[in-house]
DNA sequence: CACTCCCGCCAATTA
DNA sequence: TAATTGGCGGGAGTG
């Protein structure tokens, strides 16, 4: 109700702590009194308990289909809260009002109004997605229950699911601590890892659900038993240890929720049918598949799904199989996690970035509660999960003596190992990834094809913002927001493919910058990358797939690009979604230029966007850069770092491509990709182009390679470059790729003016931008001087590059941004200068980059610092916006 | 009829 | 022992 009123009044602000008693309303609710039509007549206002009510009305008015959509949207919107939500909300509400309909529905409160999903929305509306670290929000179950007018039991359902994702943690009896989505990405990451361990193999086969089912069932039995639940929990959180305990509750909603999420994360298609999930989740019963049990499980899954839907992490879909249509859910949340989220957070309006703080807070809180060492451990461990620890630990501990502990320990160990690994990766990656990836991440974030596309396109600053939010929020909303902005650029929708399907990179107008990447599929260096990769893949797939869509459906993975070692992404998702909505999109693009200052004419779009980004990036970059530089004078750029890190940590990891090696590998002619680097201080007049190319199939590398000089590069006088607006690389050409150059060109042309450049030559360039050469890794041309702007910049570039790599075919505008930052090629910026004032403030934190010295120091702790830095940066970036 | 999933009984846990 | 949590499944609303 509140919401509703407010919406009118001040639609924008999310409902936070409204004292209003829904319960009252409830009493009044239609149920008791079907309400008089009169009210209805007047307006829906009076009645609408929730925003939903309005929606319903609208929906009712609209066609059935519309209804569903509307509903969904609504759900999402509230979630978003912060920034964007405003507009949308208002809009919706307005709409609702207009419709005024309602009568129909109002009459009965209908179950829907009482649905868990709605309830969850209301619940979520009360708390910020990204609460400031400083403020700890405690949730009183009783209070909330009364406010929302529901029985406490229902609140438990919600809280348990939220708890499984670490959005909240139990502090004490009736008390929960609200953490928001700050740690969501990490949690998801962990879950993904865990999921891969447990279900990964299976997922590989995913195409066929049925098969999967069987497989799952079997494996589950096998695999799971051990770590199983524990692992999940535990792994997911350190705290779990204590918490998880074994108690009966293990099968609880919490665990089920985690497992359920894991299935999505592991699934290539990102779609999980209800029955499969139920089967998988029925641990023991596998064989017997008790019908009743199955039913029960399904009921629970619906409960969980409702909450996850409200969170914007999944959406309901239907999968048509041989037998028929089955209910399923599709993951629409972030696909990659890692730091992105963090970054996102930073950007996000509300966010407060600092995990650290949170930790601190959590720690305190935890300690108070529990006062155990574990806690400490945890804290150290994961920045991410702070508070959770507490949960029931205290209680559980006493209860659970050794057994639990042992189990816990085991699971912990495992988990920890995983966690550590992740962390390391993340951290390492974060430095590069975060910065670099950010942009990329944006792309991926969206997850769905729909989303993916959008982000990129956005115009300037929008990009940043949009991106951030998008990341952070899986919600469609963000994407939506972006849309508007994007239109000019390539559009995604159908267009995805259009854009740059195969091409390895994108080019931008000179003014800004460009980047590019080749198709690379896979490598995900870091996590973030994956997203990009995914996108790229998708895009590629899309291209190919589009026509092939059908094929994919059936043979999901096969269809995927042959060349690259694609990972996960698959068409599968697509296949299901044949609908298109999901289409894989791809690309990226420059954004619209609303104003590109310097940029050129049409491109402006790209440029402008770039600019904004730049700023953000700068922030990020600059800090990071310094670190890097310091660390390795030689290496200089992020690349190196990345490489190193990747090597160190990743070696294990799969991404063959990513690795360092490549420098030379990159050489491959196939589709050469280049990175353009403008000369900075060190290199004055030359612009460098590095090839990032990779073999179409293989790929890997990009950024890393670049650093190494060995890679083939081209140096071009800046002047020369100036004339070129951009470049496109030829598509990989997936065999299938239907996309004709023409399409691409067309798209390109629109944005860039470069009509047909063709695909064949991958190149690009820019005049203005000056990039530092990260290039010279070894030489560390510029690197040495930390202060140098170049350094700062370089990191950015690198990152961008790396990101690019990941993304394979797609290119991002992001990188561009970076360049812009540098634009000022003219004068070397000092780090400080680069940073915006705001940023500085943020940076001030001790750990922060603030001074060069600090940076240097950081070397030792690179990882940490980087992460922290990034975070900070993120934050800072946000602030600017 | 199949889906969804609300509702609330009642047992396990806690305090 | 009382209160809190939360598993569970009947059965109602929806399509």
TrEMBL record:
Tell me where in or outside the cell this protein is found: Nucleus
Its main subcellular localisation, reduced to a broad class, is nucleus
Tell me the superkingdom of the source.
Eukaryota
Name any Gene Ontology BP term. Answer: sprouting angiogenesis
Annotated region (Disordered), positions in chain:
1-36, 340-409, 557-607, 622-668, 847-881
> Where is there biased composition of kind Basic and acidic residues?
571-582, 641-652
Q: Where is the composition biased (Polar residues)?
A: 364-385, 860-881
Under the heading Pfam families, the entry gives: WHD_E2F_TDP
Recorded GO CC terms: RNA polymerase II transcription regulator complex
Domain E2F/DP family winged-helix DNA-binding stretches: 111-180, 248-333
Spell out the molecular function terms from Gene Ontology.
DNA-binding transcription factor activity, RNA polymerase II-specific; RNA polymerase II cis-regulatory region sequence-specific DNA binding
Q: Which UniProt keywords apply?
A: Activator, Cell cycle, DNA-binding, Nucleus, Repressor, Transcription, Transcription regulation
Family annotation (Gene3D superfamilies) = Winged helix-like DNA-binding domain superfamily/Winged helix DNA-binding domain (1.10.10.10)
User: Could you tell me which PANTHER family the record lists for this protein?
Assistant: TRANSCRIPTION FACTOR E2F, TRANSCRIPTION FACTOR E2F7
Q: Which family does it belong to?
A: Belongs to the E2F/DP family.
Q: What is this protein called?
A: Transcription factor E2F7
